[in-house]
Amino acid sequence: MSAVDTLLQRLRGRATGPQPCADAGPRFLVTKQSWRGQYHRVLCITPAALITHYPETGDTTNVWSLAGDADIVGLEVGPDSPEGGLFTLRMAPRKGKDVKLACRARTALLTVLYQSLATLQVPIPPALLSPPTLYPTWKLRRGVWVPATLRISSWCVERLDPATGSVRWRLEYANAATPAVHLLEADQSDPPGASCLALFGRAGRSPRVHALRDRAGALRALRGAAQRGMGLVLAVDASAAASGPALLAAVAASGRERGAAEGPLAQWDVLSVHDVAAAAAAGGAGSPTGAPAGSGPPRGVTRRALVLTREALLERRAGDYELAGWRPLARLAAAVRYADDPQWLGLEWGDGAPACAYVTPARDALLAAIVDVASRAAGRPIPVLARPTAPGDALVAARGQAARVPALRPNAEVERIVLGQLTAAARQFAACGALSSSSATLALAGLSSQAGLTGRGVEAGGGGAGVGLKNSGTMTPRQDAAAAAVRRAFARQGPGAPGGGQGAQDPEAVIAAFQQRVRELNACVPASGVHAGSKADEAVVAALVAHLPRQQAAPVPLGLDEATLAIEALQCLDRLASNLVVGAQVVGAAGGASRLFACMLAGNAHLAYEASRLLLRLFSPAAARSGLPAWQAGGCAASLLGPGPLPDGLLGAAGSGPDDP
């Protein structure tokens, strides 16, 4: 069996660990406008409904269905305002007045909304989602014109395989370049009666050259769909003095020159993995591939030569070494070191480009090199995740911010919201008596609650993985055993466990809710840390420390879920510890220092890495903020060792959808 066959067989295996629930969806900070005034809401887009929450408490305020007897029958895009781009939800007569909202990330919000609508297997009102327009076309691929179909919809343009109808390529209007369309000159190799155009995206891939017999009609449909559906004006360059083959030849030559000029630092032979069927389901476009052992549709595997330079990551075809993709490292949002497979590496990008997934035996060497070079190129630390970012973890609030990936820049309003919700969840966590539980028990509690066994107490605003608005009612044997173990563990505490209220009656739901808040803070606050004036309650630090392994006489290997939760807790502590007061709380917490060093001796490389990063934060804050090694950060900054300059030394110097295979 070949390596590719082995990989495909593993891709069909069953997923382990917590999985996103069916109704998890991206979240956006919006401003609701009415005759009573303007007020903020968190808008969660699920496959079947739009849900709004109070930012401070996470309580649900409105639920508007999109399927069946829909509450929303139309959508109208308005002009820009000081609060962001305006759009109006046309409500059904039984729902009363229309709802006017403003969002600074309106383009990303509408893209996700249209994706969700496109996945519904029910009729959609044309006023809400216009039917797509199809144009027969030819796509120029390696000098050969291949028949295809262009589908133009309200949020993207796609190329379909005419034989199967599957999506082979997609360009979202939100990720289109400026100009997005170049009109090309005729060439003797063009199909008879067809005119050519090239579509450009902001991601570092070559343009797509198409030949259409009705180029003018397709161009009008493309620009009209972007204007009506997204409020975007796609720029068109009609002055291009090149044919389709000449353009692709020039792009290939430019790629060769770029690779020679930048100078490669290292190169790896990898398998590039993308979800083939995710293109057919609009909701899966642009999102990272699932867990490496995940069940689901087949994935495409392509051999690539991955070249790392000081400024970019280049994908080259294994056969002819031509440039297949170019990604600037400064836009890297996070790297994913899959905890359940030692060969899988994921990369999440903050510019709207699709996530990458690679398979290589040298995964950790590749990861270390990318994180080191990307931190220097971006001037900030690059987080290393144990699993991909769930759709609802990040709260999108800024113009140009990508959904489904961790935030790149700090946002004071979002930070205040997620920190307040984390504090409330930590207090409930302490009230239910979970502070004295082992990290293994806490991992089992999160697993059992995410199975949908206990939805009580987690409805408040949880849009991310595992904390949904409704229970699935399904239970695997592993989750059943987890729930039983958790209930036995908390039953031993007796009826006098602190709290006595709902938290004590349903501890696994409270624990899962806190763990979800931790993931949300990690996705909403950049790895550089919180603002200097931010404060964290002592209950937050205590609850996070409780997720770390206890110091043992001999190292005890951690389970997969237990190690993942400890990694996420350390990443949350690292962000909070950018405030020196919180850093002192971490060191002074009961068992805080011993558990921190226990993480380094637990036999898990990723856990030891995160513990070392937290130690770097405590002893060299400037280096942690910049993502540089402590001995290269330079400058002076206060630390837990005291204000002012520190001695030099190790801790001393303070300072577009699936692509063609």
Could you give the topology of this structure?
Elements: H1 3-11, E1 27-34, E2 37-45, E3 49-53, E4 60-65, E5 72-81, E6 84-91, E7 99-103, H2 106-119, E8 133-141, E9 144-152, E10 156-160, E11 167-172, E12 176-183, E13 195-201, E14 208-212, H3 215-230, E15 236-237, H4 244-262, E16 266-275, E17 299-308, E18 312-317, E19 323-328, E20 332-337, E21 344-349, E22 356-359, H5 363-378, E23 384-385, E24 395-396, H6 412-431, H7 439-450, H8 477-491, H9 502-505, H10 507-524, H11 538-546, H12 560-576, H13 580-588, H14 592-600, H15 605-619, H16 621-626
Parallel strand pairs: 1-24, 12-15, 20-23
Antiparallel strand pairs: 1-2, 1-7, 2-3, 3-4, 5-6, 6-7, 8-9, 8-14, 9-10, 10-11, 12-13, 13-14, 16-17, 16-22, 17-18, 18-19, 20-21, 21-22
Helix pairs in contact: 6-10, 6-11, 7-8, 7-10, 7-12, 10-12, 12-15, 14-15
